[in-house]
Design a protein that fits this description.
globular; alpha/beta; 209 residues
Length: 209
């Protein structure tokens, strides 16, 4: 197992965020100091050059705290930014094609939204799986909530590291943990928090981390 995969296995709290907030460096520092283990840079509409400039700031922040950096959607930009991984959705490049581009050392994540997708990901060349959205969320407009049933399925069947995602806050994260989740992905509960460090600590506590 590589160092990246060892760190992934130990990860419990995964933050997805954009890179355009004016207090970006302070925000990342607060989140990582409090206990975020993985950070995904998600900017679907940004051109490559400015995205790489922002990714360099994410990379420096993650390096200071030993956290993993993941780039959303783009294997080429994950390579160019020296990220630890790339995250692929169901409408993105197939994982086998992504693996051919990034090689064996880089992590690949996979979004799944239904039992057949989650089970399929177990045989794909991916390192971790996200299941959800557990609850409806504006970050995934039009995507129906899966509820906790997909969390329970993942807990029963997933041998790979997996994360519950979608509308999770300290209360709903606790419910996901009771359904079997030991790792979660969060967007708004950290990005919109008045007290970022407090939000991170509350989320970690909710899943027993």
């Amino acid at each position: 197992m590589t160092a990246r995969r060892e760190r992934l296995d130990a990860a419990r709290l995964y933050l997805v965020c954009g890179g355009q907030r004016p207090d970006l460096d302070e925000f990342l520092e607060a989140a990582l100091t409090a206990g975020v283990d993985v950070v995904q840079l998600r900017e679907k509409q940004m051109e490559a050059r400015p995205l790489l400039e922002i990714a360099a700031r994410f990379r420096r922040a993650c390096d200071r705290h030993g956290a993993l950096l993941v780039i959303n959607d783009r294997p080429d930009l994950a390579i160019a930014s020296n990220a630890d991984g790339v995250h692929l959705g169901q409408d993105d490049l197939p994982p086998a094609a992504g693996r051919a581009l990034v090689g064996n050392e880089m992590l690949i994540g996979r979004s799944t939204h239904a039992p057949d997708e989650t089970r399929a990901a177990l045989s794909e060349p991916v390192d971790y799986i996200c299941v959800g959205p557990v609850h409806a969320t504006p970050t995934k407009p039009g995507r129906s909530a899966t509820g906790l049933d997909l969390v329970r399925l993942a807990a029963a069947e997933c041998a790979k590291p997996w994360f519950a995602i979608g509308g999770l806050d300290p209360q709903t994260a606790k419910e996901a943990a009771q359904a079997g989740a030991t790792r979660i992905v969060v967007v708004r509960a950290i990005e919109q928090a008045a007290d970022v460090e407090g939000a991170v600590r509350a989320l970690r506590s909710a899943i027993g981390a």
